[in-house]
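Notebook B, p. 112. Complex prediction, attempt 2.
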Amino acid sequence: MADKLENTTEPLSNRVVAGLQKIGLAMKSQAWKEANRRRVTPLQGQTLALLRMRVGRGATMSALAQELAVTLPTASDVIRTLEVKGWVRKKRSKVDRRVITITLTAEGMRKADGGAGWPDFLAAVADQLPVAEQESLLRILIKMIRTLQERSEIPVARMCVTCCYFRPRVYDDPERPHHCDFVNAPFGDRLLRIDCAEHEPAAKAQAERNWKTFNQGSRL
Amino acid sequence: MADKLENTTEPLSNRVVAGLQKIGLAMKSQAWKEANRRRVTPLQGQTLALLRMRVGRGATMSALAQELAVTLPTASDVIRTLEVKGWVRKKRSKVDRRVITITLTAEGMRKADGGAGWPDFLAAVADQLPVAEQESLLRILIKMIRTLQERSEIPVARMCVTCCYFRPRVYDDPERPHHCDFVNAPFGDRLLRIDCAEHEPAAKAQAERNWKTFNQGSRL
DNA sequence: CTCACTACTAAGGAATCCTAAATATTGTCA
DNA sequence: TGACAATATTTAGGATTCCTTAGTAGTGAG
C-alpha cells in the first residue's frame, strides 16, 4: 500500500518540470499584463532589455534573432515595430552593407531603464526565499542552463562558468573563492552571472576544466 | 577592490530571475519548434494537457481561461481552433445553459497522450541533476509558487501543500513523512505534486497550519 | 565575372493576445 | 411577475507574435 503512490505517479523530474512550467506561465501572463499597462509587449521588452545591455555596441539582426530565440523574420518584425515607435534606430554597417546594426534611441533607453522586459514580480518572490535557497536555486539553474547550452536547446547564455575571464576556486575564502579576470576581483557564488555583458566564451578545453573545478567544491 | 564587484552588480535575486528567464526562453522556443513539427501550437498543447487531466469531468470556458492565464476571448479562440481540428467537443451544460463544457475527443486524447504541451527536453535536463538537487529545486519551486499564489500572480496551482487531503510530517520515516488522505498512503518530498488532478483546496487556517508544519522540518 | 553564400526583407497565413461591446441566461428583489 | 444586476461566453476589431517560403542585396572565392 505504501508503494501505491510511488507506482502511480511520475518521476521526480516531471514534478520539477511542472513547477518550472507554472513559473513560466506566471511570467508570460504577468508580462502581458505589463504590456497592456506600459504599451510594451513581452518580446519588445526583451528586445529593449537586450539592446540596453549592449549600449555603444548595438546588435545585428541575426544576433538579436538568435538571442531572442526567434526566427529572423520575427526579429525583423519586432524591430520594425520598435522603429515605428521610435525606440530603436537601424543603420547599415559600413564594413558589410548587408548587415543592419540596431541601437536604442534616447526614448528607447528610457523605456528600457524603466524596467521593460524585466519581471519585477518574480524578483520580489525570489527575495522572499532565504539567501541560502536563492544560492542553491541559482547554482541549479546554472547547471541546467549549461546542459541546455551543450545540447543547443538554448541560444546564448553569457554565464561566468563558460567565460574566458572566469577563474573558479582560486582562493581559500569560502565567501569569495572565484576570480574574474575582466574586473580583476574575487567574488562568490552569489555573484555568478547568467547574462554578463562582458562575457567572452572560453575555449572548449578551458571551459571543461573550469566547470569541473567549479563543481567539485559545490556546497549545495 | 574586493568590493568592486559587490557594488556594481545587482542583487542575488536578480540573477535567479535571469536564470528563470533563460529557462522560460528555452521553453518558449522549444515549444514553437515542437509546434511546427507536430502541428500543435504551445497554447493548444497546454490546453490539451489540461483537458487530459480532467477526463470525465471536462472544463468550462472560464475555468480554462483562468488556468491558462489568458482572457476569456483568447480561451474562446483556442477552443474554436481545437474544435475545428476535431480535438475537442463543446457542449452546453444542462444545469446552466450559459455554461459551455469542453471535453477531449478520442483524437484529442491521442494528441494529448502523445505528449502535447509537455516539454520533454526540460525533463531530460532536470534528470541530469542529482536527485538531491532535483528535490531542492522542487521544494524551492513549490515555495515560490505558493508565494505567487498568495499574491494572486498565478492562476491555479493544485499543490499538495494547499490541499485538504495533505497531512504533512505525520510519520517518523524521513523518506515518507507525509500522508495523502485521498489515496490514503504515506509519501515523501519527492512525490509532492504541483498539479494534482484530485486537489481540493484546504481551508485557509488548515493551509496555514500545514505550511508551517511542512516547512519546519525542511531538509533543504 | 560568375556562383555560392550570407544578411536581411517581403509576402502570406495561422495563432496569440488584448479591450470593448454584444448576447443569452440566471438569479434577485420589489 | 417583471425589471435589473450578475454571470458565462461570443463577436468584433486590431496589434503582435510566430512561422515558412521566396525574394533581394551584398560579399567573397575561384
